[in-house]
Amino acid sequence: MTPIRAVKGMNDVLPAEIGRWHRVEAEFARTMQLHGFREVRTPYVESTRLFVGAIGEGTDVVEKEMYSFVHHDEPLTLRPEGTASAARAYVEHGVHKNEPVSRWYYVGPMFRGERPARGRYRQFHQVGAELFGDAGPASDAEMIDMIVSFLAAIGVRDSEVFINSLGGAGTRDRYRAALVSHLEPKKDKLSAESLRRLAINPLRILDSKAPADIEAVADAPTILDFLDNDDQAHFDETRRYLDALGTPYKVEPRLVRGLDYYTRTLFEIKAAKAILGAGDTVVGGGRYDNMIEGLGGPKVPAIGFAAGLERLLLASEATPETPVCDVFIAPHDKTGAPAMAAALVLARELRQQRVACEVETRPSSMKSQLRRANALNARLALIIGDAELSENTVTIKDLAGHTQDTVPRDRVVPIVVDRIVASESRAIAVDRGSPAKGNT
Ligand code: ATP
Ligand code: MG
């Protein structure tokens, strides 16, 4: 039989790689919690109508990338992004009635039927956040600064922040008209795709990567020239707060991004092209002040962002390998049975103190047991052999320091806990946001 393979563009993350994922996810959770955000979990499947309405027709996502299907007459879609679902949940649960401002973050898989490439997959993962209930520019600047500190914490170097403002509906209409009159005379030169979009969604042409389109929009007017006074003041203040925070950014007046729901502040963060190639954007976000109302909710402004986890992992400097366990326990006596029982009991005592242990449960030589302890990156190996059993002791071998000492059995747990807590890299350092130190 031909072996069954994973679906193209959908990847396994094997245990050997998961340590890096956990580190990035834990750092994300930590950063979000430090800023008052709490996690939300929404379903992976939603009504197709939600995405078509919120993301907008004439966008790549809705036109070409959604995994949609009909189940018992109900049109459904695997979520291609997180904002529409979060906004739907916010409205559905009437969250605005309980609190004026809500800060939510999420982590999870998204699905888009794109052509797979480096950093571009059909099932990929995003970390993201939404802030509901604050229209002010201080939250725009703080969100951008929060993402920049997260990127620094996970070792993404050379990232660059680009910001723009799309203004409100009035601004967008005026700019749309100006852009169309700029492009009309050049329309023979546009790509077929952009020609079609000229009628339905002309701003998307600014995002086109086709050389003919890039040339046609090169001297087009920019949206920043069309902002009304309130939009302009919002943009200026956002910049002032970013300046006060010392967060570097560049104004990119042609930044429009792929989703239709944005208003006012829009931003994108790119990492080094050398690592990511064409998909060098790691973070995209912006304000969407009209979405909640558009979904039938109250008039509540919002801003959010999403970052691709796979791209963050590609862009972040090699994080150290996480040990699989802190302590490896090697039972070793002539008959096997008493040492094994002693090892199982000791392992359970250590695990109760939050020390990750693996017991060698297969019969094997001391040499191969220590080889395995090293392969697991364990910090300590505990040896229980004939001598230890008869003297009621345990031998502690420091695998990095290449030292060893024998301690009384009734002292071994506190001694091991002390040494493990003192070491920097721990198997269970991923404690969903709470520091690993001192949790004995
Ligand atoms: P791109 O221009 O690269 O297609 P996008 O504008 O479609 O990105 P968003 O919808 O803003 O992306 O999603 C935010 C982030 O999610 C992106 O910056 C990227 O890091 C990640 N992302 C988007 N699509 C994919 C994908 N197919 N595979 C992996 N990561 C993705
Ligand atoms: Mg895309």
Descriptive notes:
With 440 residues, this protein is an alpha+beta fold. Helix content is 39%, strand content 21%. It has 16 helices and 16 strands. It has helices at 15-34, 48-55, 60-65, 83-92, 137-153, 169-183, 192-200, 211-217, 229-245, 273-276, 291-294, 309-315, 337-352, 366-375, 386-391, 409-422, and strands at residues 38-39, 45-47, 67-71, 74-78, 102-111, 123-132, 160-165, 250-251, 263-270, 281-287, 302-308, 327-332, 357-359, 380-385, 393-398, 403-408. α5 runs parallel beside α9 (229-245). It is elongated, with a radius of gyration of 27 Å. Magnesium ion (MG) is lined by residues 60, 258. Residues 60, 258 line the site of magnesium ion.
Observed structural traits:
alpha+beta, eight-stranded mixed β-sheet, elongated, binds adenosine-5'-triphosphate, binds magnesium ion
Q: Could you give the topology of this structure?
A:
Elements: H1 15-34, E1 38-39, E2 45-47, H2 48-55, H3 60-65, E3 67-71, E4 74-78, H4 83-92, E5 102-111, E6 123-132, H5 137-153, E7 160-165, H6 169-183, H7 192-200, H8 211-217, H9 229-245, E8 250-251, E9 263-270, H10 273-276, E10 281-287, H11 291-294, E11 302-308, H12 309-315, E12 327-332, H13 337-352, E13 357-359, H14 366-375, E14 380-385, H15 386-391, E15 393-398, E16 403-408, H16 409-422
Parallel strand pairs: 1-5, 7-8, 12-13, 12-14
Antiparallel strand pairs: 2-4, 3-4, 5-6, 6-11, 7-9, 9-10, 10-11, 14-15, 15-16
The structure holds adenosine-5'-triphosphate (ATP) and magnesium ion.
